[in-house]
Amino acid sequence: MRISLGITAGLTVFGKLWLSCLMLVGRLGVIILIYTFLENKNQR
Questions:
Q1: Is the Cβ–Cβ distance between 11 and 19 less than 8 Å?
Q2: pLDDT above 90: residue 27
Q3: What are the Cα distances from residue 34, in Å, to 7, 26, 43?
Q4: CA nearest 35: which of 24, 23, 43?
Q5: Is pLDDT above 70 for 3?
Q6: How far is the C-alpha of 27 from the C-alpha of 9, rounded, in Å?
Q7: CA-based angle 36:17:7, to the nearest 5?
Q8: For residue 22, which phi and psi values (nearest 5 degrees)?
Q9: CA-CA distance, 42 to 44, in Å (whole number)?
Q10: Does the keyword Membrane apply (predicted)?
Q11: pLDDT tens per residue across span 6-16
């Protein structure tokens, strides 16, 4: 049994939804961080 396959195959539907939500929030967080960084850079 491979661990990487076991994690993805063992996920329930809720687990997959939770994982995709976390990834979406992570991407939004990165975009917001970059946006605020650029805004602060422009204000100086």
A1: yes
A2: yes
A3: 31, 12, 14
A4: 43
A5: no
A6: 24
A7: 105
A8: -65, -40
A9: 6
A10: yes
A11: 555 666 888 88
Give every CB contact of residue 19 below 8 A, 6+ residues apart in sequence: 11
- What six digits make up the tokens of 42? 């422009």
Contacts of 1-4 with C-beta under 8 Å, sequence gap 24+, read none
**CA 26-31-37 angle, 5° bins:** 125
Model confidence at 29, pLDDT cuts 50, 70, 90, reads very high
Which residue's structure tokens are 């605020």? 36
Amino acid in position 5 = L
| 3-state SS class at 44 | coil
Task: Give residue for tokens 């809720």.
Answer: 14
